[in-house]
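Hi W.,

Here's what went into the run:
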Amino acid sequence: MSTPNIILTGFMGTGKTTVGKLLARRLQRPFTDTDALIVERDGRSIADIFAQDGEAAFRTWERTIALELAQQQGLIIATGGRLMLDDVNAEALAASGHVFCLTAVPDTILARVKDDEKRPLLNVPNPAEQIAQLLAMRREGYGSFPQISTDGKTAVQVADEIFLAVGG
Ligand code: S3P
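Here's what came out:
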């Protein structure tokens, strides 16, 4: 019988990668992170892909990786913050397993991503305003997936919650 993937989505700074790694260890399953895969394949950082080729080129990379991972089984997948808001990506990956959306309030997100230059979308003069705007635009999309709040919780607690939700 096939083993469903577990796919983590949610805004930047909600802990998808940290929680995904913990969950993978707990379930003894392989972990993969779509941002890391893109960097590995392209050979440039995400910031450089955005700066040199534009956001659309990065989104094309996301599509390639999403369709590829959807063909595999038993993975714990941390996705980039917008990957699952694309209908084609979401349909393919959702068909391959269970999707969970990690959430956090804007203040928590800001505190977690502050001083991190890896995220070109938040590398702006007023990241707080940018977070609020992006969250508002994405609210409906994220809302279509089962939500797991991460505010005031450790990554271990969040991983435990997902572990239980998938039947341990
Ligand atoms: C993005 C989120 C980032 C990365 C890219 C764009 C987004 O991933 O894919 O910078 O549009 O939300 P994380 O959510 O892992 O930071």
